[in-house]
Design goal:
It is a single chain. With about 600 residues, this protein is an alpha+beta fold. Strand 2 and strand 3 form a beta hairpin. Helix 7 packs antiparallel against helix 9 and helix 11 packs antiparallel against helix 12.
Length: about 600
């Protein structure tokens, strides 16, 4: 494929200059001739396109990516395949993806200098990535290639994640780290299970996001090496340092979030992108975080246990039973060698044995009683449902109980950072010092305002209800962009992030447009353009006038609010006709006059 020869894909997308190149694909600036908009076109390398398995999975994943509609995800508009002739003369079908063109720069560009970014900016970027992952994971799509080069910062300050779908197809292909250097650039962000070639899930994306957050905070990735294999080995076997060990202004709470996201065992990481996003928010605002202390991630120094095994603590030997005078008593009972037929001696021996057993039992009871733990006081779990986090901590501490945070839950009824539930439940009797796990509200779930422009009011209400949004007000406006009773826009506008249960305002077209009387006195072309722009038809008439220049509008048949599609008669001034332009007229015929009397006298 020759880059300097413009051509079209699918008879629609004009391929222009190359704007990006990677180990797997090339990205070109493109133009959608049908919708007249700039796009980005990613085309896979021809050598990968020869793999039929890759093509099938790429097509499936591209279709899944095209279904994602989120403000933090670069939109995929279309996919297709193009027949390309390779240098050896063979023809191969190359898949391509048409995407939203985003003006800005990548996080990779931001980190090229090796310096960390401000903490609040690092949190903002990571929050945008986690929001995108939260949405994609809910739709069953794992990114698998989160890295700085796949995160865009737009010129308007938005965060956009790229390459959904492509990453999964590439991972599922037959290429490995040793077959191509295409993975070297992303090895610094591979999860341990990816490095081991195991199945991955949403928690692999969380690990990669943790690597990006680490680099944003420190200016360097958590692991570095001379080769992709060396870096991958570190992901599997070595613990990362805390970010504060490299950049000392990173607070401990953010250290804890980073290290939990980088846990070797995915069972120890955050259970979802939402959980990490909420904990990162708590860390940034100074609230208590779910992540454990940083020193809890220290691995045993003497050995690395095989996957799936546990090192059990040594079990102390059971306490020896007290012996006391048992041996002496037994010797007393059987020490003398008496004939067995002596019945009195036998009875005495039995009695002595019984006394000895009773003595041992009594002493054992005394020993156990003396060493038994005292009775532990039991207290009821206080009623903390609905209380704030700080209030719950104070109430549990006063009751002699320990506070622990569980996974947060969204709630439209319980305010953010207030208690939804507790385990054990309030009122349950527990030992003093017991731990109570508290579920905090993260507030209402976040939803995106759908684009309902052009719909009827009933259709718009239905779509808004589907995402748990309400209509608080309907305003009728004069707007020519939509037909009567169709939605023009919403407030907040489409794409805005709201909490579940929030309300929006619908703007409905009245079907009327406002014709301004100020148009009278303006020139003909200006008035016609304005009226036609309002969706009105026009009829032009002329009228002679010497008071205004020719071409000036003298009258409009209607002004004010008129129905869209109305025909407006525009009366335009023209110059009055001059004498030179008037048709000639016949001179009046005069009656002959009589000759003067003197002349009549000369007549015969």
């Amino acid at each position: 494929m020759v880059d300097n020869q413009p051509h079209r894909l699918g008879g629609r997308y004009e391929v222009r200059s190359m704007i990006g190149r990677g180990g797997m694909a090339q990205v070109h600036l493109g133009f959608d001739t049908r919708l007249s908009r700039i796009v980005a076109i990613k085309m896979l390398r021809t050598d990968l396109a020869r793999d039929s398995i890759f093509q099938t999975r790429f097509r499936r994943e591209a279709q899944a990516a095209a279904s994602l509609n989120h403000p933090n995800i670069v939109a995929v508009y279309d996919t297709g395949e193009e027949e390309v002739t390779t240098p050896d003369g063979s023809v191969v079908s190359v898949p391509y993806i048409v995407m939203e063109y985003v003006e800005g720069h990548t996080v990779r560009d931001l980190l090229d200098g090796g310096s960390p970014v401000p903490i609040d900016e690092a949190v903002e970027i990571t929050t945008g990535v986690l929001s995108a992952l939260e949405y994609s994971h809910a739709h069953g799509l794992v990114h698998r290639d989160i890295k700085p080069g796949n995160i865009m910062l737009t010129n308007t300050g938005k965060i956009k994640v790229m390459d959904f779908g492509i990453a999964r197809a590439l991972t599922d292909s037959q290429a490995t780290m040793t077959q191509t250097n295409a993975v070297v650039g992303t090895a610094q962000y591979l999860s341990p299970e990816q490095a081991r070639g195991e199945a991955v899930d949403a928690r692999s994306d969380i690990y990669s996001t943790g690597c990006v957050l680490f680099e944003l905070l420190t200016g360097q990735p958590p692991f570095k090496g001379d080769s992709a294999v060396a870096v991958a080995y570190q992901h599997v076997s070595e613990l990362p340092p805390a970010p504060s060990a490299i950049t000392n202004d990173v607070p401990d709470s953010i250290d804890r979030v980073v290290l939990k996201s980088l846990a070797k065992d995915k069972q120890d990481r955050y259970t979802s992108a939402e959980a990490m996003r909420l904990d990162l928010h708590r860390a940034a605002t100074g609230a208590l975080v779910m992540a454990p202390e940083t020193d809890s991630w220290q691995a045993p120094a003497t050995q690395v246990l095989p996957r799936g095994t546990q090192q059990m603590p040594a079990t102390p030997p059971p306490p020896r039973a007290p012996q006391y005078q048992t041996d002496t008593m037994m010797h007393t009972a059987v020490g003398e060698d008496e004939p067995k037929k002596n019945t009195g001696r036998t009875v005495a021996t039995v009695l002595l044995v019984l006394v000895a057993v009773a003595a041992v039992a009594l002493m054992a009871w005394w020993y156990v009683s003396k060493n038994a733990e005292p009775d532990i006081e039991r207290v009821p779990v206080p009623t903390i449902v609905g209380a704030s986090q700080q209030e719950a901590i104070a109430m549990l501490t006063e009751a002699g109980l320990e506070f622990a945070i569980g996974d947060s839950q969204t709630s439209s009824e319980v305010p953010a950072d207030h208690v939804i539930s507790a385990d054990p439940e309030p009122g349950t009797l527990v030992d003093v010092g017991s731990q109570v796990t508290v579920i905090l509200s993260s507030g209402p779930a976040t939803v995106t305002v759908p684009d309902v422009s052009g719909l009827t009011q009933e259709q718009a209400r239905s779509q808004l209800k589907n995402v748990n949004l309400e209509v608080s007000e309907v305003r009728t406006v004069d707007d020519p962009s939509e037909d009567k009773d169709r939605v023009i826009k919403t407030d907040p506008e489409a794409g805005a992030e709201l909490s579940e249960g929030d309300s929006v305002i619908l703007f409905i077209a009245s079907g009327n447009v406002a014709v301004s009387p100020d148009l009278i006195g303006q020139d003909r072309d200006t008035v016609l353009e304005a009226l036609q722009g309002l969706g009105l038809n026009t009829n032009v008439e002329t009228e002679e006038s010497d008071e205004v220049p020719a071409g000036t509008v003298l009258r409009l048949s209607s002004t004010g609010n008129v129905p869209k599609g109305t025909t407006i008669t525009v009366t335009v001034a023209e110059e009055p006709a001059t004498e030179a332009t008037q048709p000639p007229t016949e001179a009046p015929t005069e009656a002959p006059t009589e000759a003067p009397e003197e002349e009549r006298g000369n007549e015969p």
